[in-house]
Amino acid sequence: MKKVSFAEFGGPEVLRLVDAEEPHAGPGQIRIAVRAAGVNPVDWRIREGQFQQAHPIELPAGVGQDAAGVVDEIGEGITDFAIGDRVFGEGSSTYAEFAVLTAWARIPGELSFEEAAGYPSVVETALRIIDQVGVRPGQTLLVSGASGGVGSAVLQIARERGITVIGTAGASNQDYLRSLGALATTYGEGWVERVRRLGRVDAALDLAGSGVIGELVELTGDPRQVITIADLGAPEFGVRFSGVAGSMPAALDEAADLLARGKLHIPVEKSYSLADAAAAHIDSRAGHTRGRRVIVV
Ligand SMILES: NC(=O)c1ccc[n+]([C@@H]2O[C@H](COP(=O)([O-])OP(=O)(O)OC[C@H]3O[C@@H](n4cnc5c(N)ncnc54)[C@H](OP(=O)(O)O)[C@@H]3O)[C@@H](O)[C@H]2O)c1
């Protein structure tokens, strides 16, 4: 099969489309014929070697954790899914023709593989950080960096829970944030005042890692009311950094439910072929994705 792989850490040029042995589903796993793979910033962070100290991997390595496709192999112990089922979920080396998933759910209705591949990680992250920050219905949540993958999920889940959201994004994404039910303003000089004019802030999420933790503490009045997923310096302010958790199966079921009820839709800004994975990484790393980027297999 074809798969995207890299044999050394580095820039997008280290990615290669190679012939590889097909993976097989172990106990409690399924294998899918991949139709689409979600592109996440963590994919190029791993490729650059950013996590080698904390979570070392061996080279050569595959790329990608999110995917959607058709079940074509079932591991021992799986009884409620069958060959041919349309699923989306999380596994490893998903930029490939076949991939093994460790957590998955059925794709609701007629949703395309391309769109479905965009949901797993961002919905898991959004559910996790909304719960961790402890914001309640009727309260106001400030989201810094609200127009990307995680932000798009946070805004819609918060709306569904009756939480008011103030989101910051670039000038070209203001209408996009409003279309997801948020009050919107731009980041950059004067943003704290602009947020104050939109309302009182009970809790805040930093999704962009743009060095605003101090301001988020100032706006909420309490570091315990702030969570970041992108700023490793946050603990200096008494603010929690939220890392990957193990709640993927429950998150996928909740994503499927929200999608089936028409409460969640994240647009795919651009799709790429497996051979164009490097372009997908360059575009993702530029840091201004609206919604999601996806590799279509
Ligand atoms: N710790 C975890 O569990 C976890 C999980 C998932 C992701 N992450 C990390 O969280 C970050 C966001 O992930 P993502 O998938 O949502 O990324 P993404 O889809 O690439 O979105 C990035 C967003 O950041 C916004 N942005 C850029 N510069 C900004 C600034 N100065 N101020 C405010 N917003 C700014 C962009 O908005 P405009 O286009 O409008 O400028 C864009 O929408 C990444 O660094 C990723 O590695 C961490």
Structure overview:
- This protein folds into two domains: 136 residues, Quinone Oxidoreductase, Chain A, domain 1 (Alpha-Beta Complex), CATH 3.90.180.10; 118 residues, NAD(P)-binding Rossmann-like Domain (Rossmann fold, 3-Layer(aba) Sandwich), CATH 3.40.50.720.
- It is 27% helix and 27% strand.
- It contains nine helices and 15 strands.
- The strands form three sheets. Strands 3, 5, 6, 7, 14 and 15 form a six-stranded mixed beta sheet that branches. It has a six-stranded parallel beta sheet with strand order 10-9-8-11-12-13, sandwiched between helices.
- β11, α7 and β12 form a beta-alpha-beta unit.
- α3 packs across α4 and α3 crosses α8.
- The model has no long low-confidence stretch (mean pLDDT 97).
- It binds NADP nicotinamide-adenine-dinucleotide phosphate.
- The site of NADP nicotinamide-adenine-dinucleotide phosphate (NAP) has 32 residues, from α1, α3, α4 and β9.
How do the helices and strands line up, and which of them pair or pack?
Blueprint: E1 2-6, E2 16-19, E3 30-39, H1 41-47, E4 61-62, E5 66-74, E6 86-91, E7 98-106, H2 113-116, H3 120-133, E8 140-144, H4 149-160, E9 164-169, H5 174-179, E10 183-186, H6 191-198, E11 203-206, H7 213-220, E12 226-228, E13 240-241, H8 248-260, E14 268-272, H9 277-285, E15 292-296
Helix pairs in contact: 3-4, 3-8
The structure holds NADP nicotinamide-adenine-dinucleotide phosphate.
